[in-house]
Amino acid sequence: MAASLTRISCSSAFTFSASKASVFSPSLSPPSIKVPTFSPLTVKTLGSSFAPHVTCAISLTTHATLTPSSVPSDTSTTTFHGLCYVVGDNIDTDQIIPAEYLTLVPSNPAEYEKLGSYALVGLPSSYTTRFIEPNETKTKYSIVIGGANFGCGSSREHAPVALGAAGAKAVVAESYARIFFRNSVATGEVYPLESEVRICEECKTGDVVTIQLRESRLINHSTCKEYKLNPIGDAGPVIEAGGIFAYARKTGMIPSESN
């Protein structure tokens, strides 16, 4: 599919938010959650600055080198900024978290952290840059960019949990295996965002990117290109709450733990 994009002004202003805490809860999708409705792909030319939620301005030059620490953070989770890690098509759950690590119990904090240290360890050796460096438990890549059918394979909910435990905040892919998408929403670990454009062919590992959930767009600051994403829709508030059970408690669907 041909890429649809527009170059953005390299003096554009953008915002960055603090990362959302990863919260694990069992995989369950109640009838009250509707499948997000995605709007058609559109292209929008940016002005000199992003009007919504502007808190800081950073001048960019073409192919500028930025680091996540160079951008101030706020307490909103509607925007994510950081380095991206790019993978291809048909990344299955064995590649995301091999079966040998499924004995780890995510509800145990120590095992949750250990599970994250094995995220994407099953990728083939052709991925010379690893998602997590040796002897580290967290990744420096907060956004994963993939191709078609991301998260295919088994129904293990450990897959999005491992990514979230490693420090990833969102996955942007051309399409998802349905069970991975549902598990991502149910656990509240990562935002599974879709684009009709093969962004995985436009970006490379280490590019500095920003995802703006409210505007449904991804901006690659390393190439000065912008991409329209499909809206997350009704799944957004569930992920924001920390998963399906946290959302149910927050909205009064089930009693809170304090009751």
UniProtKB/TrEMBL annotation:
It catalyses: (2R,3S)-3-isopropylmalate = (2S)-2-isopropylmalate. Keywords: Amino-acid biosynthesis, Lyase. InterPro entries: Aconitase/3IPM_dehydase_swvl, AconitaseA/IPMdHydase_ssu_swvl, IPMI_Swivel, LeuD, LeuD_type2/HacB/DmdB. One of its GO terms (molecular function) is 3-isopropylmalate dehydratase activity. It is an enzyme of class 4 (lyase). One of its GO terms (cellular component) is chloroplast stroma. Residues 140-188 form the Aconitase A/isopropylmalate dehydratase small subunit swivel domain. Heterodimer of the large LEUC/IIL1 subunit and the small LEUD (SSU1, SSU2 or SSU3) subunits. Belongs to the LeuD family. LeuD type 2 subfamily. PANTHER family: 3-ISOPROPYLMALATE DEHYDRATASE SMALL SUBUNIT 1, 3-ISOPROPYLMALATE DEHYDRATASE SMALL SUBUNIT 2-RELATED-RELATED. This is 3-isopropylmalate dehydratase. It comes from Hibiscus syriacus (Rose of Sharon). The lineage of its organism: Eukaryota, Viridiplantae, Streptophyta, Embryophyta, Tracheophyta.
